[in-house]
Specification:
It is built from 9 helices and no strands. α3 crosses α4. It has about 220 residues and is mainly α. The protein is flat and about 70 Å long.
Length: about 220
């Protein structure tokens, strides 16, 4: 375990962490755009977004990765492993976060829109300055859970040859024939990453609820 710790951490630092951060950031943008279209866009475009969300949420992530990496070359689209994984995870995160963002935007009372319009804000200004800040507080817990799940889901990228943490463990197993030890070690690294992120989530929630909400009422 000591000998393999360095290669595993290096694979996590070079591939797992960048893949997670990039996929989540791009997925948030896709999710925000999808949610806004679902709520305020024209019906044909909203129907297209609903179809996208339906497809992504209704099919396994591993199948989506295989379609992008192994399926697209049959129609002349060839992607390297990392970009294919990035596209797959981004589309997956985008579909799930779009439902979260749509729900939290819809939960903001209509009076907030009316108050913003009453002081001369345009729709975009009301969305940016009034609605999204309020929705963000509600969205933090579910979005944080999505991010933590994504850290673990990146292990699926090993199936399309991305040399991330889990595939690094597989390669070491192939030479040492110690699957139990190495897979436990990989699991512990994922557990450590998830635990750190969970602790950061708790601190962020407390900070957002410092001036009100459930935490203050409970205290």
């Amino acid at each position: 375990m000591v000998d393999s710790l360095g290669p595993l951490l290096w694979a996590g630092l070079v591939f797992t962490v960048p893949l997670t951060l990039s996929s989540f950031a791009l997925g948030l943008l896709v999710g925000l755009a999808s949610a806004v279209i679902r709520l305020f866009g024209p019906k044909p475009l909203a129907a297209l977004v609903r179809f996208y969300v339906w497809i992504i949420r209704g099919t396994p992530l591993l199948v989506q990765l295989f379609l992008i990496f192994y399926g697209l070359p049959s129609v002349g689209i060839v992607l390297d492993a990392f970009p294919a994984a990035l596209i797959g995870f981004t589309l997956n995160v985008g579909a799930y976060t779009s439902e979260i963002i749509r729900a939290v935007i819809a939960s903001v009372p209509r009076g907030q829109w009316e108050a913003a319009y009453s002081i001369g804000m345009s729709w975009s200004q009301a969305m940016r300055r009034t609605i999204l800040p309020q929705a963000a507080r509600v969205a933090v817990p579910p979005l944080s859970n999505t991010f933590i799940s994504l850290v673990k889901d990146t292990s699926l990228a090993a199936a399309i040859t991305v040399p991330e943490l889990f595939q690094a463990a597989q390669r070491i197993v192939a030479t040492t024939y110690e699957p139990l030890i190495l897979y436990i070690e990989a699991a512990l690294i994922y557990l450590a990453l998830s635990s750190v992120l969970s602790a950061l989530q708790v601190r962020l929630e407390k900070r957002l609820n410092r001036y009100g909400g459930f935490l203050e009422a409970r205290s």
